[in-house]
Design brief:
single chain; alpha/beta; six-stranded parallel β-sheet; two-stranded antiparallel sheet; 6 helices; about 30% helix; globular
């Protein structure tokens, strides 16, 4: 895309645990009746801690809107708004639950509604719903899952329970920058440019 005759760089931003956090975790905690030790969880699919209760959990979860009371992470809105002056922003998120694929439409609708209402300055046509983020060709990728940022010139890995054990050396060898919050992203993508 060109704006004022200048080619704008593109950014792909993940949704869950990058724009908004803890919605699924809160529902999981309510179901369990306690807060799991997230520091001991390294698997990307947090629901795997349910073991044989997984089927029961998803039978209740399938009709829930986990974005109904969700909020954006601190500084996310303001940083993305600033970034939108310099970059073309795409929100790219998966909406399919591997345990209840047949109910994916519910999650898609809820994600779309949340993004539409909370990020009013981003065109809805810039919302991409896919599990295969390798098809998205952007200059910059921001995600909490390491394989979702492959192929970008600038790769920002948002810290989450499942990636916290990756060492600085591992990240550096793949030219990945770890970020813990949206202020850090602003510093990297606006203040340093």
């Amino acid at each position: 895309m060109k704006e004022s005759g200048i080619q704008m760089k593109t950014i792909m931003v993940d949704m869950d645990d990058v724009l908004t956090y803890g919605n699924f975790s809160k529902i999981l905690e309510d179901y369990l009746g306690y807060r799991p030790d997230y520091n001991s969880i390294t698997n990307y699919y947090i629901q795997d801690i349910l073991g044989d209760k997984k089927e029961d959990f998803f039978s209740k979860f399938k009709d829930m809107d986990m974005y109904e009371n969700a909020t954006l992470l601190p500084d996310c809105y303001d940083t993305l708004r600033k970034l939108s002056k310099y970059y073309k922003i795409y929100i790219c998120t998966d909406y399919i639950w591997r345990e209840i694929v047949e109910y994916a439409g519910n999650n898609l609708k809820n994600k779309y509604k949340f993004l539409y209402e909370k990020l009013d300055f981003i065109e809805p046509r810039n919302f991409i719903f896919t599990a295969d983020k390798s098809i998205v060709n952007c200059d910059i990728k921001i995600d909490d899952k390491i394989n979702n940022i492959e192929g970008a010139k600038t790769k920002l890995l948002f810290t989450a329970w499942h990636n916290k054990n990756l060492t600085d050396e591992e990240l550096e060898s793949q030219n990945i920058i770890r970020v813990d919050n949206w202020k850090e992203i602003e510093e990297i993508l606006i203040d340093r440019e």
